[in-house]
Amino acid sequence: MSKTAVVYWSGTGNTAAMADAVVDGVKSAGGQPELFTADSFNSNMIDNYDFIAFGCPSMGCEQLEDTEFEPMFDSCKSKLKGKKIALFGSYGWGDGEWMQTWENDCKSFGADLVCDSVICNDAPDDEAVAKCEDLGKALA
């Protein structure tokens, strides 16, 4: 049975709701999910998981949250080469450019993006929740 870490940061609860849906998807596919906030996950934990889903909303000018999530993620980069990961997050403005930038960053250091990233504008609607559950199933 595969072990999946779901690691996220959420300011308004939108990305937290997405993380919960990813966890539900992993469970429904028979995987073992563990949910972490960004401040409770670090690079030393990466080898304990077969898959990792990272979730972060767009902040500021189409960027990752920079006080908790981005420092944690930057510290993990060197251990993510060849690791099967997926990305998700919400945004309140813009067009999702932060996700495209984040995906390209992950590809540049060799992470294996196993499925399409999931983004939603503001709170996840039924379609976004279903996509997050599918993302979780892909990681199980």
Q: Could you characterize the architecture of this molecule?
A:
The mean pLDDT is 95. Strands 1, 2, 3, 4, 5 and 6 form a six-stranded parallel sheet that branches. The protein has helices at 14-28, 69-76, 97-108, 126-139; strands spanning 3-8, 32-37, 51-55, 84-91, 112-113, 118-121. It has a single domain (3-139), classed as Rossmann fold. The radius of gyration is 13 Å and the shape is globular. Helix 1 crosses helix 4. The protein is built from four helices and six strands. It has 140 residues and is an alpha/beta fold. Helix 1 (14-28) links the parallel strand 1 and strand 2.
What can be said about this structure in brief?
The chain has helices at residues 14-28, 69-76, 97-108, 126-139, and strands at 3-8, 32-37, 51-55, 84-91, 112-113, 118-121. By secondary structure, the protein is an alpha/beta fold. Helix 1 crosses helix 4 (126-139).
Keywords:
140 residues, alpha/beta, Rossmann fold, 6-stranded parallel sheet, 4 helices, globular
